[in-house]
Task: structure prediction
Amino acid sequence: MEWCVYVLRCGDGSFYTGMTNDLSRRLEEHRAGRGGRYTRAHLPVRLVAAWSFDDRGAALSAEAFFKKLRRSDKARIIRERAPFRAAPFAAELLREARA
Result:
């Protein structure tokens, strides 16, 4: 089962980072106000980044690490579509989730 770490840009410009094994379902939950408490209060949300991981443990570790970064570092990684924690930027997940 493939896991991913994803980043949403919220309506107020803030970032929300999460992980899931079903990005389309999770994104729909966030957009419908059934996602995390934070995103419910900061709608609308837009998917801006995602990285694929082979297992839950690696995704969990990467999510925790990403959340600790400064906003400027997060923005740079997203803007450059850079790999993160040895995982490739998953542009195909962004395309699928936006469809």
In short: The mean pLDDT is 90.
